[in-house]
Amino acid sequence: MSVTDIVGEDRRLLLMGRWLPDAHGRLARAALELYSERGFEQTTALEIAERAGVTERTFFRYFADKREVLFQGSQELQRIILEAIAQTPADVRPVDAVIAAIDTVGGLVFDRAHSVRRATIIAANPALQERELLKFSTLTASVAGALRERGVAEPSATLAAETGVTVFKIGFERWITGTPSEDWAECIRDTVRQLRDVTPSLIVSQV
Amino acid sequence: MSVTDIVGEDRRLLLMGRWLPDAHGRLARAALELYSERGFEQTTALEIAERAGVTERTFFRYFADKREVLFQGSQELQRIILEAIAQTPADVRPVDAVIAAIDTVGGLVFDRAHSVRRATIIAANPALQERELLKFSTLTASVAGALRERGVAEPSATLAAETGVTVFKIGFERWITGTPSEDWAECIRDTVRQLRDVTPSLIVSQV
DNA sequence: CACAGCATGTCAGTGACAGACATCGTGGGG
DNA sequence: CCCCACGATGTCTGTCACTGACATGCTGTG
User: Fold this and answer.
1) Which nucleotide is nearest to A53 (CA to C1')?
2) Which residue of chain A has the CA closest to B158?
3) Residues of A with CB below 8 A from B167's CB?
4) Residue B49 and residue B55: Cα distance in Å, rounded?
5) Are the Cβ atoms of B93 and A155 closer than 8 angstroms?
6) Is-contact A102 A168, C-beta < 8 A?
7) What pTM, to 2 d.p., does this model score?
């Protein structure tokens, strides 16, 4: 039995017999590239792994599933928003606290080019849209939780959270699709302005 | 070669050699039962098919995927809401038109016991929640489209749609979890009342 | 120098789907 | 009355996402 029999065809231990560092990063980059090049569905986990120089199994050790690669940041985003809400003075109204928090995450978290690339991939695939929606829903739920911590009662907490996240979604959409020069705070403020005009009347018309 | 060799073990052609009718209905019922009994993930498509007396392949001819069984009605719901919006007088404000439409679908579409059963199944599984979210998102998009038909400009149309669908979601949630006697219109009206208190201020506080 | 531990590879398996083709009653046209 | 196109289904085979169990090889530590 020769050395090559023992080592096999394994070309992955390059750095003086040690694993290449940052498998996670290489996988994320490889996935992004392939999703862009040929689309999400047309990309197999095996292909991603090969481009990253690891096995399929390793891909699934880093990412719960194929889609998760694109949603790494959302946990971080949520953490920041929650923290911002917690730090807002107690006398600020719930919705305003949420919107102020959203306002702060702007330049902080995203790089516009990356966001556009990501949004393009997601827009092309329903399964990815579902996952995005789930992230928003999770965010809404935890924002509502944060408001309850501040003493806001229940239907209002969820309503305010839902409203705030809607502002985020639409503001974000605008930030992505609009002129590159327009900044985050601007998009959010404009969306809020528009929102103020859609308050429903109390009387539901009977059809 | 005997008759049984030709017919094989096929016990499915029962009605005088013809297929049993309503394969679709049998599949839907079988799926509902199994999802309730042992949960969504613990149920395989094969098991559903067997209980319905057909093959796995036939299941996938009727339903795009395992989840779709639970979301049959949403297309009908959307159709009704859109129609109601179209029939609302042109001078009614966008949000009010949406909410009025939502108000009308109440007793019409759902049977409460069935809704509760369905909601229980969905609540127990993230993959199903994703699908539900996608349906809401689709609904929002088409409601926004209907408002645009009425001449509502773009950021407002989506905002109003999003607001209306939020009222639907939260009102529905309340209708499901609250006391069985409380009726649909009641839930919607109360939710609207609460919503009116969460209008954001114009000035976003700078943190 | 032995040994525990971590990051990875290897192998085998399950289950969701999809394409291609075969089968068998049914209903209409000759 | 027969033939044939058709519709609903079964059968077979394949691909791919994901998972559990186990093996391997380096690395730092006592």
Assistant:
1) C8
2) A170
3) 200
4) 5
5) no
6) yes
7) 0.89
Give A 103-122 residues with CB within 8 A of chain B.
103-104
Instruction: Provide, as residue numbers in chain A, all residues whose Cβ is less than 8 Å from the Cβ of B198.
Output: 93-95, 156, 159-160, 163
A50 touches strand D (CB under 7 A): no
Number of Cβ atoms within 10 Å of the Cβ of B106 = 17
B20-56: pLDDT as tens digits: 889 999 999 999 999 999 999 999 999 999 999 999 9
Over residues A25-73, the pLDDT tens digits come to 999 999 999 999 999 999 999 999 999 999 999 999 999 999 999 999 9
Element (H, E) at A80: helix A73-87
Task: Using a CB–CB cutoff of 8 Å, tell me whether B66 touches chain A.
Answer: no
Structure tokens at A100: 């102020």
